[in-house]
Specification:
The structure is a homodimer.
Chain A lengths: L6 E5 L2 H8 L4 E8 L2 E12 L2 E6 L4 H6 L3 E10 L4 E14 L21 E17 L2
Antiparallel strand pairs in A: 1-7, 2-3, 2-5, 3-4, 4-7, 5-6, 6-7
């Protein structure tokens, strides 16, 4: 196993970004609270071209980010070869209550125990990504 | 290898958070741009109780986050057992130029090729973390 001495970043197309987002279930969501940005890991699913995050009714995300701009970052990095990719979804978060009806949520399993009856749906405005590849 | 059917979150102490931050070199930094939050992966190092991030002079981070509130999230998750930890450092970013002198930067290797002469130093205001453990 060799460690590349050098890698470089290449931009991904929007299509590649969505394909990669569909391969993962753990991302990190950022929003701006009154005292500055917050970033936390979340389990998500993709439905159409929106991201769906399951959360509890008590989450700061629900209190602070509804109808607000958010960013979701998803990546997969191999620390040995130092290659991988990262996708950034920027858009607006909307809290959905179980009674809201409408689109069917994707199947999202959350890791920590406890009820997570709410969804935070992220409507993307901008989807960008980069791949870290061995340099020629 | 068994997958726990259930895990739960336990808060980490500040000391545990710093010890865990020192074991990793890849985090994600969030800042608030004019059109909403941004999150990107970065290589970082710990010096005292500050985080140091190496970056290029052209980075959006440098243009948009100097003297601003930022959040750095670092985690390590085992997707098989669904256990792991996550630490969140919230504070203020300061861009440091090579000519600034002062404290000696920690040794931070950046993965993508290209010059990264600048540092973004994060002065923490709040350091919190959680561990995802199998439920009793």
């Amino acid at each position: 196993m060799t460690t590349p001495t050098s890698t470089e970043l290449r931009d991904l197309t929007t299509r590649e970004c969505w394909d990669l987002l569909a391969t993962r279930t753990l991302g990190r969501i950022a929003w701006t609270a009154a005292d500055g940005p917050v970033v936390l890991p979340v389990n998500y699913g993709v439905a159409g071209e929106t991201l769906w995050i399951r959360t509890s009714a008590y989450a700061a995300l629900v209190r602070e980010a509804d109808q607000s701009p958010v960013a979701v970052e998803v990546d997969l990095v191999d620390e040995t070869t130092r290659t991988g990719w990262s996708v950034l979804v920027r858009g607006t978060a909307h809290v959905r209550f179980p009674s809201d009806g409408g689109a069917t949520p994707p199947d999202v399993e959350t890791w920590p125990a406890g009820p997570r009856p709410l969804w935070v749906v992220v409507d993307p405005r901008e989807v960008t990504g980069r791949r870290l590849v061995p340099r020629d």
